[in-house]
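Structure record:
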Amino acid sequence: MVSAILQLSIVLAALYVGSRYGSLALGAISGIGLVILVLCFGMKPGTPPTDVIYIIIAAVTCAGVMQASGGLHWLIQIAERILRRHPEHVTFLAPLATFFLTVLVGTGHVVYTLMPIICDISLKKGIRPERPCAVASVASQLGITCSPIAAAVTSFVIISNANGFDINNIQVVLITLPASLVGLLAASLLSTRRGKDLDKDPVFQARLADPATKEYMYGNISSLLGLKIGRRAKASVYIFLGSLLVIVFFSLMQICGHDVRPLYPDANGELKPLGMNVIIQIILLCAAALMIIFCKASPKKAVAGSVWQSGMVAVVAIYGIAWLADTYFANYIPQMQSALGGIVKQYPWCIAFVFFAVSVLINSQGAVVVSMLPLAYALGIPGAVLLGVLPSVYGYFFIPNYPSDIATVNFDRSGTTVIGKYLLNHSFMMPGLVSVSVSTLVGLLLAQIFY
């Protein structure tokens, strides 16, 4: 028992230290934990999540090439046009815009260009920028479990299928998308009256009284509406959306009982359909190639872009974190089943608190799924319950050190979106807690109805 606690403390210490350094360190420092557990304690090493990593590489390559071609600017330009047409509803429309951008592209790092636009619209409409900005940042991460090509969703499908819960990406999204939208709308509604109105906020009024600060707040115009989008950039978006439609087609045919996936013999000679994880990889890589050939997207520019770079950081993080976690938990499955079996059998939804707590530590929804879902299945928790609580893998808003939250604070020139003096009293806490809690409850209800 003492040895198990000591080894767990090593795992947690590696995650904590990695989160403090951020970026690639999340995965790299997990290597120190692996050295100690495997070479010092003699634990059998776990299995790296290679299938998940391959899908992430294919997805971020495709999205990164689209960004290099200018297609992502076109999507953001469309979102900006909608927001500026209805500025009075920016607290509702802004989070919906960032949410659906994430759903389309599979990563929340696509919204940085949109954040200063949201601030600019709200400030000039006299709406406290904290209201739309904070919930829009949360929405950009909430959409990850609603994207059929996101690491969290593809990981859930691969691990669930391996544990006897037969489900595909579209079936997951059909639960998480409506659940997350309800949670997001609840957070947006509560955000409409957050903080003091600008004309009654003494801190903002003091900033406004200074001519230089006023010029800084109101003088900069953030907009992509004047940017000319070429035909090749638009074509890259059509290719990207077309690839998503092909993936949706294969999944829907599977749901309808008319599986059109090619069949191949397995190790026993029995014909089995090609896995959706392989199909997704093939389609996304093909789409990336078509963009390079026909849209003249620069591969060098794609590699230098924010989407590809953030995606590769996620690959390293998931690789290290999931391998470290699997090494520890795989060696203690019998003991955990004995200790926790009764609790999870009576209250299986409690696993949502575990998912949330781990997410606070490791800042990656995909890594939470890959590292914790096998344990959840080993404890006997039904797949339907795990599907319902999937939105709970987003908890890293709790400590505001995630890049999108930090960037949002910096983009808000009014100074209303803040990280508080006591760290946890920050602008993202309320919309994060409300959206994740409501999404998880609605997801559980929907999963129980349909599964």
Observations:
- The radius of gyration is 22 Å.
- The beta strands are 263-265, 271-273.
- The chain has a mean pLDDT of 88.
